[in-house]
Amino acid sequence: MREIYFKFVPDDAVLNNDPTELAKNNWLKYNNIHDKNTHFISYLMKKHFAGQDEIKYNQYKKPIIDNGFFNISHDKKLCVGIFDHDHDIGIDVININRQFNNVGIYKKIFNDDESKDIFQFSRKEAYTKMIGKGILNMKLKMLDIRIIDGAIYYKGKLEPYNVFETIFNDYFICIVGKFSPTAEFTFKEFEIPS
Predict the structure, then answer these.
(1) Which of 11, 32, 124, 173 gets the highest tally of CB atoms within 10 A of its CB?
(2) How many domains does the chain have?
(3) What are the angstrom distances between the C-alpha of 38 and each of 15, 70, 77, 181?
(4) pTM score, two decimals?
């Protein structure tokens, strides 16, 4: 059973007020408590999955660690993360009440015959995060990616990855990776170290 780590982001108190940590991790640029807390939780998840303080990044800012692969996503009040010992993995979370109606982005991400909704956007985002390039990478053409009934096609070729989708509270979560199509996932609350 694979674990999806989650943590709801508090808005009422800053989780880390250490000025040295805030400066070192560039959290001073965030003006509100919510953004500071979201990035602090993401930072702690990275450290947890990496098992090391120093994390390297590829040219597209995907973290690279020695002991496996992980991915983290956040939207509004929820941070999620997942780890795999053997294969790259991607995760995306999006609030199901989010309004997504930017026609300019539609033309860059969705083919004419694709559903243009937050769920399809999240599927493509999880895939691009898994391959380490991210949805905003200009060299990766989102129109070349099609996800149909859980199957992923890139430039018309079937990719060897599976898709897991679930609704957790008011959030759609999509995971893409080399796991069994019958893999089971469970949720585990991420504990912030004291």
Answers:
(1) 173
(2) 1
(3) 9, 17, 8, 31
(4) 0.89
